[in-house]
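Report of the visiting student (M.T.), summer placement. My assignment was to run the structure pipeline on a short list of targets and document each run. The first record concerns Integral membrane protein.
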Amino acid sequence: MKAIRVLVGVAGVALMGVGASLLMDVGDLTGVLVWLGGAVVLHDALIAPLVLLVGLVLVRGGVRGPVRGALMAAGALTMVALPVLLRPGRPANSSVLPLDYSRNWLIALVAVTTVTALVLATRRFAHRRRPPS
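After the run finished, the structure tokens were exported:
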């Protein structure tokens, strides 16, 4: 287990090095810094409080782990897909965004929902089959 952690840590440091080397190729760093600063502000001022509020409401409402996990996965998928989903029209170059991202995002959400439903059904079935103690 420790070897896996070390391997993942080394891979992470290597990827950080790749990112840093790519950042050195950027001519104007102010745009990158504004984008990064905006991402931090957006996360801290809007996304994190919203996720915490939704989590609090779900816990108070009695929603359990698999549903909360599915909502987190769906939220992460949506955040990744959001720039493409909100783009204005088709790109001039069809090779820039060659896939149907809206459809693929919906397929991913259906997959998350299906897996969550299967986990919940399996838990209910296993709970009913368990003899009373």
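The chain has a mean pLDDT of 85. The CA atoms of residues 74 and 109 lie 6 Å apart. I thank the supervising group for their guidance throughout the placement.
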